[in-house]
Amino acid sequence: GEEVMGSVPIRWGVVATGGIAEKFCEACAYEAERTGRSELYAVASRNTAKAEAFAASHGIKHAYGSYEELFADPSVDAVYIATPHNLHASLSIAALNAGKAVLCEKPVSLTAEEFYPVAETARKTGRFFMEAMWTKFNPAVNHALEWVRNGKIGTPEFIRCDFFLQAPYNPSARLFDPRLGGG
Questions:
Q1: Are 6 and 31 in contact (CB under 8 A)?
Q2: Which of 33, 77, 98, 136 is positioned for an S-S bond with 71, CB 3.0–4.6 A?
Q3: Based on the number of CB atoms within 10 Å of its own CB, is 55 exposed (0-12), middle (13-18) or buried (19 or more)?
Q4: Confidence band for 98, pLDDT divided at 50, 70 and 90
Q5: Is the four-CA dihedral 39, 45, 49, 54 of positive or negative sign?
Q6: Catalytic residue among 61, 100, 106, 152
Q7: At what angle do helices 19-35 and 48-58 cross, to 10 degrees?
Q8: Which of 67, 16, 22, 58 is nearest to 40 (CA)?
Q9: DSSP-derived secondary structure letter, 60
Q10: Long-range contacts of 107-110 (CB under 8 A, 24+ apart)
């Protein structure tokens, strides 16, 4: 409808039930409590029992045993995609084509070529799409950028940024298997 942004909560559908989905739900619940602009409405997993358990632990009203079922729910306004990396692009496209706004965990795709159809689908459908790049909203990063813009620290000549996560080596795990976007 023609609702004014912020007048009704955004009903979120969470796609997957892993650790990062847990963190998203914590943040979304905090936002819902503070402003009332977000609602954890649905969750989907490829396993119905996992979706139901996740929904129960987060106070989510609807649980689906497939991503397609969640995308087909007309009450879902936006989806958060938290699956393994290799599924991000195809699920983003499916959600956009179903008329959903999409917040996709990083990386959106494993290659640039795989990203182009995501961007084209967002343009074609006129739906909001964003990669969940939290550093864009990090106060310390924004403060440093402000210093650069204001000339407070001079002109940067080189920037190196690293981000890592330590995990025990398991070649078939998502973090290490290149087919799943690990490496």
A1: no
A2: 98
A3: buried
A4: very high
A5: negative
A6: 106
A7: 30
A8: 58
A9: -
A10: 107/131, 107/181, 110/85, 110/86, 110/181
Separation between Cα atoms, residue 18 and residue 35, nearest integer Å: 26
* Residue 178, preceding peptide bond in cis (omega within 30° of 0): no
50: annotated active-site residue: no
Distance (Å, rounded) from C-alpha 80 to C-alpha 132?
A: 9
pTM: 0.84
SS3 assignment, position 8: coil
Q: Which residue has the tokens 């609702």?
A: 3
The pLDDT value given to residue 5: 54
Distance of CA 59 to the CA centre of its chain: 19
